[in-house]
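user: can you give me the structure for this one chain? tokens are fine.
assistant: on it. calling the predictor now.
[tool input]
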Amino acid sequence: LSFLFFAMMGIEKKTHRQVWFVVCTTVSLYFMPRSFWAPGAWRYYICFLQTTASGVIMYFLGPLPKQPAFVKKLQDLDPCKYHVNGCELVGALDDIKTEGSMMCFHPHGILSVGFSLNACWNKRFREISPNTRFMIDKALREDVIFFKLLCDANGHVDTLNKKNLLKHMANKTNVAFIPGGFEDATAAEFGVERTVMKKRTGFIKYALQNGVRVHPIYSFGESKTYYTMKSFLDFRMWLNKFGIPAVIMFGFPFCPLLPRPEAQIMTVVGKAIEFPKIETPTSEDVTKWHKTYMDALDKLFEDNKKAAGLPASKKLEVW
């Protein structure tokens, strides 16, 4: 029954998910223990209430209103302090403009600490670029109740898809996202600086079509937030195609779901690359500007790895 509910993550249209949710709920009611005293009945009831409450909130209620007071309170608490060795935003911050920019974060890691703490919830970043739309995968934005409520409260987090991305770019609204996506997370390995970008060219095409400024941004220390499983990589990469984050990780020993607090995070913003506006870019155009972007990302890594405490021999792996 849990897997029936889980299957909704692969359904795109909201109306189809609503129908599937009703079907799953009906089946769950049919198999529900008739007596509370039946073996395991209380566990069934708890799971049923949890999944149905989450489903109603996610699939039938509209987004919760933005909660600026909550955002301010969280920023005042400064969650960056969780990382005892530092969690800072540095780099070409003065080069960030309030419109017409695309900010691409690397690597994804597991919980995207750099993207979350040094951008999405970061007071300084929000002051520099107050109208930035932070974009994340549908599975997190719409299908995980905790993240959905958190994103609703933030008020600046959208689902990452072609429609939303092009809409914001057409309006000259700044966008920020992680191009590597779930593949980046699946390929994550403790202490290895790696990003999955060789075949990620879609965002380059959209940048050319809109003639935006593109900032490569790298979070040093992201690779040390979790230990991860390295086996069955091909199978887990295949699961990513269905929007399933196929990762097994271990972070803080007392609560493995949380990142390791001793990981030092340094998110470095690179200078913007001025993309020309080409309404119908050719594959050669996309290939050329993808290489330009990747060269800039590699240079950003090389120029800042010493400040991040990495040895001179450390290289950025690009898959």
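assistant: here you go. The first helix runs from residue 2 to 6. The longest strand covers residues 213-220.
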